[in-house]
Amino acid sequence: MDDLRERIARSLRREREAHGISVSELARRAGVSKATVSQLESGAGNPSVETLWALGDALGVPFATLVDRPADGPTLIRAADLAAGAPQVPSADAPYSATLLSASPPGARRDLYVIRAEPGEPRRSTPHHQGTTEHVVLLSGEARIGPADAPEVLSPGDYLSYRGDAPHIFEALAPGTSAVLITELR
């Protein structure tokens, strides 16, 4: 949770300053207290989904802008990490929380696929268009997925993102392997 608080603090301050508004003005526009904005910008706050949505709306940015982690290389999120308490933003109004896996960057196009694969020869993909990123959530089975030179073994519920504009593979390691694949083109 501390990493999430730090990301929110940096993102909120960056966006507020980019818009040239004070903490007081942001609080007024979002309908939250100045103390709440100050606490969030210092990394000490414990925001709800509703508060972050209000702040994002007041700044004219998506919720994801305030919580997304920057990615330079592959991003792997294990299902066990999600179950064990990955950074979540709780709702103040319902038994609900959100864990952002990946935000869509401005101007991106995303295509969504369901993949079914069986053990055997891996699917070797040549690089797609420059700027392509692939996101995979393994639904069933087990698979070796990702950059051709450093694929990861995924279990059900694991999430992996990697550059699709470099050679990559999808190799089923167990019968009945299936996944959700999202290709993103910037």
From TrEMBL:
Pfam family, one: HTH_3
Stored InterPro entries: Cro/C1-type_HTH, Lambda_DNA-bd_dom_sf, RmlC-like_jellyroll, RmlC_Cupin_sf, TransReg_Diox_bact_type
Ranges in coiled-coil conformation: none
Keyword Ligase applies: no
Sequence ranges assigned to domain HTH cro/C1-type in this UniProt record: 12-66
Gene3D superfamilies recorded: Jelly Rolls, lambda repressor-like DNA-binding domains
Protein name: XRE family transcriptional regulator
Protein keywords: DNA-binding
Organism: Microbacterium istanbulense
Alphabetical list of PROSITE patterns matching this protein: HTH_CROC1
TM ranges: none
CDD domains in UniProt: cupin_XRE_C (cd02209), HTH_XRE (cd00093)
